[in-house]
Amino acid sequence: MTTINHTAVSHTIFRLLGIPGLEDQHVWISIPFFVSYVITLLGNSLLTCIILTKRSLHEPMYLFLCMLAGADVVLSTCTVPQALAIFWFRAGEISLDRCITQFFIIHCTFMSESGILLVMAFDRYIAICYPLRYTTILTRALIGKIGVTIILRSFCTLFPIVFLLKRLTFCQNNIVPHTFCEHIGLAKYACNDIRVNIWYGFSILMLTVVLDVVLIFVSYVLILRAVFHIPSRDAHHKALNTCGSHVCIIVLFYSPAIFTTLTQRFGRHIPPHTHILLANICMLAPPMLNPIIYGIKTKQIREQVVHMLFTKQKS
């Protein structure tokens, strides 16, 4: 009889706690969140503006970078303002529909970024292994189709999770110890069997993000093999230098995510606030540092930034 009463009640309002155990430090924790968000918005907006307004940068590599910058802004905007509202105003109340929407956009954007990084690896492979056919292979029409395919892949693979969550009855708890909504983090409060959610979530992770990592690795194996067949050492250096920025961003994007996944799976003795801080680093660090890395390591972008800033100062 008790079970029937519990399962008859399904929470439609949840409360995000932020970082449990560090509530008294929320104001201080909000400072790096706010600073990183401002840098993310300014850096990625400047990068996008430079790429779109300078015809010399209308090359495949920079167009893919522009896509990445747009995804970075979306990813940060879906997470940081919510976290700041919790830290500053304790405004953690969120409806089930809004929670599912937030989860969907976050994961869709994350998966899209992974796809963009894969395409950028393919771009570097074509540029180094088939330099004479680079512009004929990666036409603007193909780049547009690639962008649409990346978005559709993310949308179609994640959309079923919306229905998998909507079918659940959330009768156990409505207090979520996090700064944003996650799939399994929300599903675990259901009284239903969530094995379908777990296995589907695991399957799309393996078939998208993990597969992207494998294909990126294969691309760079082929790139390195081609580079070391070039007789000139200067050509070696130049070819590897064109990949430097991309490799840094790949490491920056995937390393926190892999580390977070491993700590959640095996780090059962790690305090909960550590898990949540690591999850937030995945959302904060790459969007903030991506434009900085490309601005420092890519000569064309660096020159355009300097030209834009100094021209404005003189005028």
TrEMBL record:
The organism's superkingdom is given as Eukaryota
Q: Does the keyword Iron-sulfur apply?
A: no
**Keyword entries, A-Z:** Cell membrane, G-protein coupled receptor, Membrane, Olfaction, Receptor, Sensory transduction, Transducer, Transmembrane, Transmembrane helix
Q: Which family does it belong to?
A: Belongs to the G-protein coupled receptor 1 family.
Recorded hits in InterPro entries, A to Z, give: GPCR_Rhodpsn, GPCR_Rhodpsn_7TM, Olfact_rcpt, OR51/52/56-like
Protein's name in the database = Olfactory receptor
State whether keyword Transmembrane helix applies: yes
What species does this protein belong to?
A: Panthera leo (Lion)
Please give one Gene Ontology molecular function term for this protein.
G protein-coupled receptor activity
List where in the cell it is found: Cell membrane; Membrane
State the function annotated in the UniProt record: Putative odorant or sperm cell receptor. Odorant receptor.
Residues forming the G-protein coupled receptors family 1 profile domain are 43-294
GO BP field: cognition
Gene3D superfamilies, per database record: Rhodopsin 7-helix transmembrane proteins (1.20.1070.10)
Please name the PROSITE patterns in this protein's record.
G_PROTEIN_RECEP_F1_1, G_PROTEIN_RECEP_F1_2
Q: Which Pfam families match?
A: 7tm_4 (PF13853)
Q: What residues form the membrane-spanning segments?
A: 27-50, 62-88, 100-122, 142-165, 198-227, 239-262, 274-294
Q: How does it sit in the membrane?
A: Multi-pass membrane protein
Q: Which GO terms describe its cellular component?
A: plasma membrane
Which portions of this protein are annotated as coiled-coil regions?
none
